[in-house]
Records
---
Amino acid sequence: MPNRERTDIAFELNGRSVEVACHPLTRLLDVLRVNLGLTGTKEGCGEGECGACSVIVDGAVVNSCLVPAAQVVGCRVETVEGLVAHREGRALQAAFIAHGGAQCGICTPGMLVAATCLLRRRDRPTPAEIREQLAGNLCRCTGYVRIVESVDAAAVALVDGREEPSS
Amino acid sequence: MDDARGSSDATTHSDAPGWIGRDVPRRDGHDKVTGAALYVDDISLPGMLHGATVRSEVARGRIVAIEYPPEIPWHELVVVTAADIPGPNVVKLIERDQPLLADEVVNHCDEPIVLLAHGDRELLERARRAVRVVIEPLPAVFEIESALAKDVVIWGEDNIFRRYAVDRGDVDTALRDPDLVIVEGTYETGAQEQMYIEPQGMIAEYDEVRGVTVRGSLQCPYYIHDALMSAFCLPAEQVRVIQSATGGGFGGKEEYPSVIAAHAALLARKAGRPVKLTYDRVEDVMATTKRHPSRTRHRTAVRRDGTLVAMDIEFVIDGGAYCTLSPVVLSRGTIHAAGPYRCPNVRVRAMAVATSHPPHGAFRGFGAPQSIFALERQLDRVAATLHLDPAELRRRNALRQGESTAVGQVIGEAIELDHLLDAALTQASWDERRATFAAHNRTTQGPLRRGIGLAMFFHGAGFTGAGEVHLASVARISAHPDGTVRVLAASTEIGQGTTTIFGQIVADALAISMSRVEIAQPDTALVPNSGPTVASRTTMVVGDLLRRAALQIRGVLADEAGLGERGDAAFARACRRYFDAHDELVAEARYQPPPGLAWDEKTFSGDAYAAYAWAVYIAAVTVDLRTAEVVVDDFVAVQEVGRVVNPTLAAGQIEGGVAQAIGWALYEHVVWRNGRVANPQMTNYIIPTSMDAPEIRVSFLPAFAGADAPTKGIGELPMDGPAPAILAAIEHATGIAGTGIPFLPEQLLAALEGSG
């Protein structure tokens, strides 16, 4: 039974060191949700299409359903639960609430994670750049209009130096 | 969910002029942006097992044997078959034709036959694959035409679940009138997958004393409650259904969750432990319901000036192997089939037929998008035949106040569809772009063609006819000594903003702040039956029940505790005073039809809906002739929906619906292979991404009935207009008049090559 062969996987998760005993091919998504109990990261398709399971690994957005645990050994992993510790994350969370960027909410953690990466890289992304960054994150509720608006509003708030609380 | 955390700036000013019409941020926003909201797959119960479903790989046949090969330790697994169902083996809905688990025969691919449970998901999956169901195939039916031809009869005597007929005036005489122009057309729409991003799932517990408890992803708690009472022969108080945070529904979580809930509960009952039964994406797409495919034939008699004289419409939908909700879908499609137009002679013959597909079911719009697609494409054909501007044809025939729809409903409202049309045409620069695109297309040497097209439509809100009367929905509010109130309703938050809207309506009626209003999570042990969360009825119907219940509370507090002023402090004082002498303060409202509303189901005529939303949508597209790729560049959506409760949430509904309809029109192709979905993945069933969806310019006209107008349902409306508008725009760009959707590049390319 492959999943009986456990090994220790150590990485940094939302700024803290964690260590998990699991098979090295366990999906990072399952490590987060099952082993570590962080259920904010969602599974929508299990094949890297929908982006609901997006997390940040060493600064890049990845689909955690496609990443084996062994690949994140020694990496810095960030999930939706860690966003509140960063100004981009807080600004985006506030903007998604204020501008209708979240409806059913199942794609929202992945959207926020993907948008966080963009705002760390670009101060004022254009709507086209926002749409491109989020092209790997499917939403079935919003038609994306208010998601793009939310990311734009968060970018403006950050440039203006407004540190919006998340609630 | 949690009121204190959900509060924000906008929810603290209780002395402001009221809550209706304000952009209150959604109450569940905080939990959703932090990852704290718990969806069914995020929930675990102690000792919980996982469930799995063994399904038919054959579309139709007789079950000869179910074999359990010895390589699996079957004694470790919980195995459930039809024999384990305590009550009747029926999914209780409209007809009693669908079994919870197939027993002697299977009637569609992926029909459930055996259920398994185990704590180890890997072993469970190996076991699921190992079960061998031996099925002796029977002939199956996959096309609407072959179902109608009765080559093989698979349901009843004639493969027809339901028929409806609309007869108004004298269609045949008009069709024979030599002075009229007769235009004919046939239109088809394909199945569409709801593709909510959260797949379906349920967790069930079973206890001999408490009975069945299920929690999960769902739209209609009391549908499930009813289905479980039937399947387990339990009284109402021994069945409890709790909604967990739900990641989208769009109708897809209306009827199928009853099946999953019953399956999970059967496993839990046999296991003596909680069981979680969640579907992965592939299983969800293959097994659960989709939008009904349709085929519509039109014959239209029209004067040379564009005046509609007669419409002869045959509307057929593919219901799949079991009846499920097909009669209701058919009914709505039939009533919308002649649109918001004045036409003295209308005949509609509508049928829902049985095929060997998995049952089709509820999906946003519920039959109306199908019949409206056909009508609007037909009207474009009429306009082209008469060399009339498509907008002008609509203008000449648009209903006016005091005129009646095809089923004879007199529109009493002061509708101004002219004004609605003008607003949309102006916003979209219709005349100018019609001309400049045409000039560009005539003169360009390049591969890109531009086009602009429109659709005019209406959508009835709430249940059809006497449906709301039969539902007799109830909603309840309790007030407490600390001046807070609690909303008790079965309406579910599935992303559309139910909890926020209810909060606004109740806070507004009580003149208190939103933070004083708690919305109870739908749980059948707590909330009354407010009816299902479907048919664009939540804000309009249940919201109004809550408004009435809130006014009762206010009345009691005014009479017995001196409540006069607005605001939290006055309300809390009055509550304290009231509770000095009483133990509880609960108000309840039950649905009552608006006076004078009458629907006759036998003649299929009368007042079909309590309210209609009205809309004109305009799409602009670019078509690349090299690839036949269609890009929607611009989308204008203008509608009248009565009073808008929350502009941001309302616009979000329209935008999301438009994007789904763009997918239905251009991308979303369910590929059937011998009755089975061949593309059940997000990789090969394509929904719009942020790169595909255009800017969507949404506007709401001031309510026709004035500033104090009631609100109308809007959830389904935006599904109706985009597909015909987009195909009209493609026709404007290329001259190719598409009659079927999804209109894929390969079809457009073939048509372009065929047209030389």
---
Amino acid sequence: MTRWGMALDLKRCVGCQACTLACKQENGTPKGVFFTKTVSEEVGHYPNVTRVYTPLICNHCSDAPCLKACPTGATYQTDDGLILVDDDKCMGCRACYVACPYKHRTYLSKEALEKNTWFPGHKTPFEERKLREFQGGTVVKCSFCEHRLAEGKEPACVITCPAVARIFGDLDDPDSHVRREIARRDGYQPLAELGTDPSVFYLE
Amino acid sequence: MKAAVAYGLDNDNFVMGYRSQTEWRWLITTAFFLGGLGGGTFMVSLFTGFTVAAIVGWCLAVVGKGAAHFLYLGNPLRFWRAIMRPQSSWISRGILGMVGLAVFGFIYILIHGGVLPGTGTAAETVFAVLAGISAAVVMVYDGFVIATPPSIPLWHSALMPVMVAAYSLLGGSTLTLLLAEAGARGSENVATGNLHNLEIGLIVFNFLVLVVLLSVSWNASGTARESVSLILSRYGLLFFGGVVVVGLVVTGILAASFNELSVGAIIAIAICELIGDFLVWFVLLNVGVYQPINPRARFAR
């Protein structure tokens, strides 16, 4: 059985946000909505201070709290481990948003979808085309670019990363690149103590 | 590499930090408040046999809470889907409880009120039990909704459903006292003698639960401590002034001298208690804080 997963290499990430932009371009997410992004943090003490970057993305947890919290069945898990949202079933209660410990879900209000465009008063042709894929009043999230996986391609953020800081593959395949890197570099899951079993690992 | 020890409240900028819960605010506060108050009032009415309280509780829990949830939903016409996953979702279980209260509670009210035949028979008892179970679910499920997911450490506490149940009963006994003593009593002989003692007990209990919840959270994790810090600072006036002083202390003092009180004072008790009841939800929902997702933090311990 396939279980899609990702390893995020913290040593390689340079915080360029290319993944953030690639995701927005691929998925056409509305203004202010990010399925993935890289956050920065200043660490250390003067004079030894540096800035470090941490890429964030939906962890597609095996034991996902958002899946359990969803009362409608709109959030579901595919056979290959992806946690997806069926827009047609979502009633917009935002229980999944509150339940996700990583806060990787975003609520799209109908008003925001219509009015919160890049240029006040009108949509660009790109927005006209892409925003049609979203439904107002629902919760949206990263799908690991499910539509690309179906075509045998990797997620947009992975192929775009210039530092090769994102490794994508099958966690259930012991010979996959992602699995070998996690094993070799002692990869670990974010907030693993919560018991959600994320499919995203960090490499230090 | 050593991670930074202290984070700010970042709110989803591109900086590592604590992040606030920003979606469940006024309408959910109102829904949770009305659900607890209505469920508690209906539950108390089952023991006092007070039909007016049963009707008011039913209306608050089914109509009031239902309307607040309905207004909140992004796609309200899909509300019926909320019962699709009772095996894992506390919202689904709660909605089933509301449906049960709507149906069984309505039939119970009709029988108990003499509109339908069967007053004093086994049928009334059966519907009272079914309605009571449903009301109990409505009273407490909001506590489980916020306590079950591990996302927000302050909420992820076994004390939360206990506190929610106690606040529901407190609101229910207060509203029953108000209805019974301030005019709605009518021809019914309502046994409210012990309700104010129950109220005093619940006030003390809720105060202790709040103290334990905050002290445990303060020492549990940095994120829970951030939530408590928000309660003590940004929401300090609402919490200490509204929840503690008005909602518990003033209500307790008034309830302790209940036998000497006028109708006006009883109304004052009810208003104070209900303000505290509402504000405890408002404050708790607004101070929900998520942990920073800092993978490097494990090296800092």
---
Amino acid sequence: MAKKLSRRAFLGGAAVAVGLPLLDAMAPVQTVRGAPHTTATRLLCYYLPNGMVMPTWTPSGEGNEFVLGPTLSGLGAHTSEIVVVSGLENAGSDPGAPGHHAAGTAGFLTAALARKTELAPHLATSIDQLFAATQMGQTPLTSLQLGTDGGVGLGDCDNGYACAYSRSISWASPTTPMPKVTSPSVAFDLLFGGLDPTATAAEQAIRKHRRKSVLDAVRGDAKRLQASLGHGDRTKLDAYLEGVRALELRIQQNQASCAGAEVNRAPADFVELVAAMTDIMVLAFRCDATRVISWMLGNSASQQAYPFLGVSDAHHDLSHHAGDPAKLAALQTIEAWEVAQFAALLTKLRNVPEGEGTLLDNCLVLLSSEISDSNSHSHKNLPVVLAGRAGGALETGRHLVYPQGTAYGDLLVSVLDAVGGPSGELRDRGYAALGGL
Amino acid sequence: MSERRHRWQRWLLAGTLVLASCSASEQPVPGPKRFHRLNRAEYNNSVRDLLGVALQPADDFPADDPSLGFDNNAASLSLSPLQFELYERAAAKLASRALTPGTTSRDQLLPCADAADATKHADTCIAELIDEFGPRVWRRPLTNEELMALSELGSGEPLAVRAELVVQAMLLSPNFLYRSEPVAAAGETIWLNSHELAARLSYFLWSSTPDDDLLAAAQTGELLDPATLRAQVERMLDDPRAYALVTNFGGQWLSFRALDNVFKDAHRYPLFDDELRVSMATEAALTFAEFVGQNRDLRDLLTFKTSYVDTRLAELYGVADPGPGFVAVDLAGAERQGILTQAGFLTVHSYPFTTSPARRGRWVLDHLLCQPPAPAPDGVDIPIDPMSGTKREELDAHRQNPACAACHDSLDPLGLAFETYDPIGQLRTLENGEPIDPAGALPSGVAFANARELSTLLADDPRVVDCMIQQVLVYALGRGLTASEHRHIDTLAAELRERGTGARDLFAVVAVSELFRQAAPAAAEEAP
């Protein structure tokens, strides 16, 4: 039997050495004629699984006078570019019953309650997609969903909640989860592939025309199916037609060009994978291939092991620490490493000059997790960091402490307001902009 | 089919569109439909069987979310714009590869492009391509409207370009990516038409597209005849493509697919590496393949003593090295019996650093008896890893809490029976220096001394056969069963018992069942 093992499996079993000879994705920008120049606001949503050990996470002090604790200390070089937000509770996503990881993950970008079902997931459109809808046609790819783990498993993701809740944070509609790309090679080709630099304008036009003719043909197929449907299941065909429409818009654009860009297409281990995906996020923004990215550093209730950190237990198992100091210390080690990956991303974004400032200045990065304390599956006092200045809309360098119970959904309204996305749907659900942000 | 081609050619040559009088099965019947997207395995297998090219484009597609235990559930197979773009890229790559001059696929798809036929009109050439390839890709005859749309694609372009665009469009079409089936309103019974049935059959037994033989039986309508259907099912089960039942049904039901994603603490379990991981999965796959291939009694899955062992597993099981490859070895002396004591099963249903009686016990309730326990009360999802003593002692204390006892009274005795096997399935007698007692009793009061005796008891439990039928139905239909559909299970179980409860017959009985030949009821999409 030719049993193929996944790359993740290979990683999981092997001892992994740290040290990453990475291709330098951050080579100085080589401006090419026609290369996009933009100072548009970008939104990046950065998800970490399994919550945080809050005592070691939360900074001391408030406002402009705060000191990062052990977990966030890796962000020291970015203190002036972040806002740490404490005290928010995502009660709107709390199922009040088992399924906290799935429901909390589903709530990260929606602040909505996931319908408990294995078959017909229903949530809300996520904020990245609300913003993406306003950017359609502005960039080659409207949005990009990235992650480390497509998810294998046994078909039971979390206590009767559909696996989509655990594996997708981006939702194009309340019923359409957006699966992630987990291969740097596939992601890179989606962003920059298929561009033949030697093709003449005429040849490119022919190629566009042909692709469009195929799309016209399959749209016709979908429309004919739709016409024969009666009142049947339109959702699937709608999603298909949405795919046709998005690709058509994309073909009308020129493929993003990012001269000299390359990434590590075949990462040897988890550490290299995260680094490669970090490079891809920076490239995608730098070259304006998309303005909206969501990223999951592991799926909900991730069982990733971190032997390269000297932590040999699986993350989720460990997260039920029951107060055991050794387990808490191991968790905090993982969390500090996650924050270091986040810091590396911010550094790379900052290293790209853009307009009068840097790429990071034009970004808004939202980082959080599905829960805070993992042992009790708490949806209170969530760990939240915002980074970047959203083109000037966000005043950074602060630690904001809100009264316990302040709605996390309010933060999502503020994020949309800051990037210029529509927040009406969230406001209709009773959320309002977070005061003082 | 050849008659249809001639008609088609005549219309084209005459330059007039004649409205066809299609047979009933060719006409799309208006009414509610259910769309079932091909999953990654089905996509790869389908393009392999259709084009014969050595590409597996679906390896790049995002993972399909499983539900109800399987990743072929129609309700969970959604589609995002990003996925659609990957489909487009795959279609372009496949078309270009399949039509590369000098390849077999090109000769089959576009025979008239050869020099000898160079005089043929390009339109005729394309018409032949559509006529030959279209019904295979879309698993049904094309309507006139569809034929016309495809024949006009790329008109004015060179023949080679047109052919590529046509193949691309067929592979990107919802008619390829989705199986569409009617949906029955409450109280209504709709029988699938012959082409819908052929597709359901091939994706069930092969995880792939119907072959020419099956399509021919669909085209003539003979597939709707029970005797023909039975013969097709037997033919398909004889075909090597039926191995998909081992990897896709068996791999998920017996959970050996999940070995890909299992992590073990390397310090505590140094034996566990990627080689052993593959050996474990291979043992389980070979076992299930043997049961299906030889139509062995399903109940023997819980009682067999001879399993497939290689050097690595021999080391783990403490038996003599059988030499190169996998060899059937009697493991009775090594305290092994049936699937529940195979290393892969025990490894998947454990934590990285400790065993999990709850996970192992839960699998038995869920997957063997179809009696899933209720979810744990809030906030008790905690792995038990006693620093001293045994798990039995911890769990006994745990059951003092009535909220826990409700489920754990049935879970724990089952799971604790496997405690003599460690997190990688190796035998052990002590935990934290104390002896492990695997003995227990079923809720009925019948006692067992260890996991092997428990397995023997389970083999005699009639619920096991019923449960397997239920699982196979969920897999075959790609959906959950409604409450009223559950009664079919009894009928099918009786039929299967009559035939001797063979593992191959299990699939055959489901494939010819009424439920399998009928449209899903509208309520099915929400059925648990």
---
Amino acid sequence: MVNEDFLIEVDQLTKTFGRKKAVDCISFQIRKGEVVGFLGPNGAGKSTTMRILCGLLTGTSGRMSVCGIPMAQYSHEVKKYIGYMPENNPLPLDLRVYEYLRFRGKLKGLEGARLKKRVDLVLELCDLHRSAEQRIIGNLSKGYRQRVGIAEALVAEPKLVVMDEPTIGLDPHQVIIIRDLIEKLRGEVTFFISSHVLSEIENSCDRALILNHGRIVAEGTLTELRENFAPEISFEVKAKGDPREISAQIQKLDSNIEKTDEGAVDKAGFRWFSFRSAKAKDIMERTAALLVRNSRTSLGEIRETHPDLEEIFIRATQRSWEIETPLGAIEEDAGDESGKGQMKPKAKSKRARSKKKRNVRRKTS
Amino acid sequence: MRNLFVILRQEIFSLLISPATFIAGFYFLLVMGLMFWFYLGSYHLSTGRMPPIFELAFGLFIMTPTIIPFLTMRSLAEERRTGTLETLLATPTPTYAIVVGKWGAAYLYYLSLCGLALGFPAVTHYFFEDKVGELRFMDLTFLFGGGLYLMVSGAAFVAIGIFASSLTRSQLVAGMLTFTLLLIQLSLIYYFHENQPAAPTSMLGETIHQSLGAFFRGYDHLREFSRGIIDTRPIVYYLTSAALFLGFATLVTEHRSGE
């Protein structure tokens, strides 16, 4: 059943290379116009998933559709709607920017006045029209090349743009340019972006998918991810007084409060303390009241802190590591079809079984 | 089909802006010119039974292992090495169109080199007609036969080069592989020319020897074509070989597209 709200629908997608499962039964949907970040450690299966999504690889099992068109049967048709910028952004170094974009536009079905209009538009959109249009790609800086790659992905009015590490190796100014570009096109084009620069994903994306060992271990908006992976309250207190006494008093308020950090004292005698509490909701108000009441301490400032995507990423991937058995086998809850469900350790992995067999043999001999 | 012509046009453009194309062409024509010079110098020693176009076509034919690797080694190997093949395959372009487009460009360049090499006898004929007129350099029958043979054999040889280029990321390896495959082909042609399947020792030996001999009679075919005798068997052989190697190259490219 095709849902018209979704641009991408992936259902139980698996890809194996020999005996290695690069993508392991993942399912997700992406709505039209969404900007979705795709995160994961190296070797998690991000690039493989993206290549399957672009029709460069075929999945071993599972279903996938883009714009409601099944990829397995009509990959040629699906490619018309996709703009793809692979990792390292490969470009022909001996062509001029304009020639290259015209060539790619033609391959994607554009011609005549429409081709010229689109090429001019993406040149302007990517800020290439003033200085780089007639330059040879091989002579361009990394930032300009990255923009050429993005312009190529956008040239044929794609509905979906898949970008693998678009900001890798760029300086902060160039990163901002690319972020602004995504912002300009937000709502018109669906972006599926993989990156290791988590702050980028946090700033640009509506939602994130976190992949580890070929499985989706977390999925949702930043708020949803926080609720799932960092539900505790974190807060920072700037106070003056004996640090041991301040810490002890605050921790007395609730047994769940844990001190995570303590800063150096400043010129005015204040220092920052960081705390984390799993349960207490009004803990900040109570802490403030306590420090104000106490004559030996004085409160400078108190503020709630939120874990950033980096923290969530580390916790999500760490959790999937911890769930794994020491021998590396994981098994997903059979009832969960989303691919992000609770993971539980396999009863016994293949290696564990063979190890057990060897031990039994040794004992019998 | 439209994308095939887009790629063909782009490949021709890429060949024309690459200095390597002109350097390879220059050396090829230099060697062909020297061969033609020696041929003219030693013509009085030959029996003169074969038309002169045969000598030139034969020279071009034996030069193929050295020129074709330069034309084809870059095509798919370089695209794979730099990663541009990945973005090319992500466009709605069938893999066969990419392979055939690249083959087409290299083949057209090969044909243009052969055409330029024919300029040597043409120039000699028009400027020294009184001295070399009896050699019938510009006899259309001979030209057509020899040219046709070079065209069909070139189609297969360029396809072999494209196939070799699809197997590897390294231009150098692709070039060496093409050179080796074409050299094997020419060696077999030479072997079966020297060892005509006349006296087989057994039925099986006869069958194998004759079957292979029929495939690798390139020297004899070239002689016949150069005299204006058109035999369809080598045409079919070379064209099917070209299709086969281009098919293999397409399969390899598709298979390795996700690497």
